[in-house]
Amino acid sequence: MSGKTEPSQERLLQLLAEHATQLLDSKSTTELADLLSLHPECNESYFEPSVAAIDLAMMPPPSELLPKRLRDRILLDACRLLESKEN
Amino acid sequence: MSESLLQRVAAGDTAAVAACVDTFGGLVWSLARRILKRPSEAEDAVQEVFIALWKHASRFDPSIASETTFVAMIARRRLIDRQRRSARRPEGEPSAIEDLPLSAPEEPEPLELQDEAEKAAAALERLKPEQRNVLRLAVCHGWPHQLIADRLGLPLGTVKTHVRRGLMKVREELAADAIESSQETER
């Protein structure tokens, strides 16, 4: 989506920005879905990489390491998932 | 060109799974601890994030975002959903309006920035302090727009406009970088 924006595009961008940063109410969710169907070049995740990049840019450095027992649980989950894919 | 960690995970490479946990574990854990205060809830959430990551690793597209940004996207989505489900008070929400900074907020020492985060930081630098502050409260602290408007004494429409314009600036910056990178690859 680029260049001059028409009113529906402007509204779509507004709703996408709100969707990326806060919970939309049901009316806005429906409106967003309707506008997205008019603008297939866009999707719900339009601003998500930007939001993630902003978060990374502003985030203080990690002060804690991943707890070891949690790391073990995560690896166990991964093994189970990979095994179930193989079977 | 060598495969990324996530591409190797998608192909079922178990060594890549462990490397992925070691590379991104600290990042996901930090996000979880910031968004969900209770350690037990953060642990469950981090476990969920990694399950989602294993399931969606094949969707990673290096032409859209770096691995770090992709992981942060997946993690944020899960963590914020969980935060909303538990209707927890947003992290850092002040108990009274006087708790809010009167001037531009102090920004923490950033992570070692790379890829998109550097571009985002550059785009943020070009925003007015008020815009940057609004974006920080919305993105990093998860404050709803109405709360930001109330606490900063700004009209709700202004808050929404700051968020939208800020996100568009960052998006434009990232898109320009992606085009530049793909042109360099073609040369």
Structural features, described:
The complex is a heterodimer of chains A (87) and B (187). Chain A is built from four helices and no strands. Chain A is mainly α. Chain A has one domain. The longest helix of chain A is centred in the C-terminal third of the chain and has 19 residues. The radius of gyration of chain A is 19 Å and the shape is elongated. By secondary structure, chain B is mainly α. In chain B, helix 2 packs across helix 4 and helix 3 packs across helix 4. About 10% of the residues of chain B have low confidence. The interface between A and B is large, with 43 and 64 residues.
In short:
The complex is a heterodimer of chains A (87) and B (187). Chain A is 67% helix and 0% strand. With 87 residues, chain A is an all-alpha fold.
Largest sheet of chain A: none
User: Which structural class fits the helix and strand makeup of chain B?
Assistant: mainly alpha
Runs of chain B with pLDDT <50, length 5+? 94-112
Shape of chain B: flat
User: What integer value in Å does the Rg of chain A equal?
Assistant: 19 Å
**CA-CA gap between termini of chain A:** 43 Å
CATH homologous superfamily (4th level) name of the largest domain in chain B: Winged helix-like DNA-binding domain superfamily/Winged helix DNA-binding domain
Q: Given the structure, what is the number of helices of chain B?
A: 8
Q: Count helical runs of chain A.
A: 4
State the total count of DSSP E strands of chain B. 0
CATH class of the largest domain in chain B: Mainly Alpha
Which pair of chains forms the biggest interface, and how many residues does each contribute?
Answer: A-B, 43 and 64 residues
Distance between the termini of chain B: 15 Å
Low-confidence region ranges of chain A? none
Total count of domains of chain B:
2
